[in-house]
Write a structure and sequence with these properties.
about 325 residues; Elongation Factor Tu (Ef-tu), domain 3; 6-stranded parallel beta sheet; 6-stranded antiparallel beta barrel; 10 helices; 14 strands; about 30% strand
Length: about 325
Amino acid sequence: MQRWRGLDAVPANWGRCVVTIGVFDGVHLGHQELIGEAVAIAAREGVPSVLLTFDPHPSEVVRPGTHPPVLTTTTRKAELVEAIGVDVFCALPFTPELAALSAADFVQGMLVDQLHASVVVIGQNFRFGNRAGGDLATLTALGASRGFQAVGVPLLVHEAVPLSASFVRTSLEAGDVQAAARALGRPHRVDGVVVHGDQRGRELGFPTANLSTERYAMIPADGVYAGRLVALDEHGGTVPDGVLGVAAISVGTNPTFDGQDRVVESFVLDFSGDLYGRRVGVEFLHRLRGMVKYEGLEPLIVQMTLDVEQTRALMLDGA
C-alpha cells in the first residue's frame, strides 16, 4: 500500500480511482464495511482504491479545544486499512484553508482535479465542505456534473445502536473494553513509548512498564485490566508476531500514593527483559476492577497479587 501525506504526492501520471473519505478513527466494523465496499468497487473497475482521511481531527481546527480522544494513531489507521485491501492511504493535513472550502470546491479540487475519482464512497451521514455544508445528496449532484458516481453506505447497527467512533469512545469511558472490542472487531489498543516512572511497582514486586502516550489518546476508564503488550517498530507500526506478553494493566492516578497524574502501567507476566525506550501497544481485553485507594502497602500488594492471578487465569489458563 502506498502512503501519502497530502495530495502533492499524487503521481503526475495518475489515472482514475475509487475514493473513500472519512476520519475513520478506530477503523471499527462500520468503517471496515464502508472501506471494503470501496475496495470491491475498485477491483471491479480495475482501478486503485484511495482512502482519504484527515490529520489532525477536523474538530480541532473547526472548533479548537474540542478534539475527541483518538482511538487509533495515523500509523495504526494506515495499518488497519491496508489489511482491508486499500491501495493508497492519504492523510490530508486539515487546515483552516481546507476547512473554508465549499463542498463544491472540495470536490472539484481534491476529488476531480487531483485524484480523478470515478467513484466516491462515503457513509450516509458523512458531511464535508465549509460548515459541513455537503452531504450524500450534494456529492451525488456534484458527481453527476463532474463525471463520477457517489455511493452511500448505510450505518452499521451494533447492539441496537448505530456503530460509530463515539459509541466506541463511550464504551471505553465506561471501562467496557469488551463492548469496544466487539464494535472494533479487535481489542482497543493504546500506543506509546515505555518511560521511567516512580519505580514503586518494582519496590512492590511488580515492575511495570509506564506508557507515555500521544496527547489525545483514548485511554479507558480508571481501573485494572487484563490485556497484552505488543511490540511496535520505530514508526509505530505493529511488529509481526510481536506479542511481548500478557499484562495486568493499571489506569489511573495511583490514589494509594496520592498521585496526581493519570498513568497507564503494565505488569507483564513472566517477562524479564528491558522495555525502557521501546514503542509498544497496550491491548485491553478484560476489566478486572475499578481503581481503589488502599490504606497501606500490604492490602495493595495482596490485591495486586490477586489481579495478576486473575489476569493469568483469563489470558493464559483459559486460553
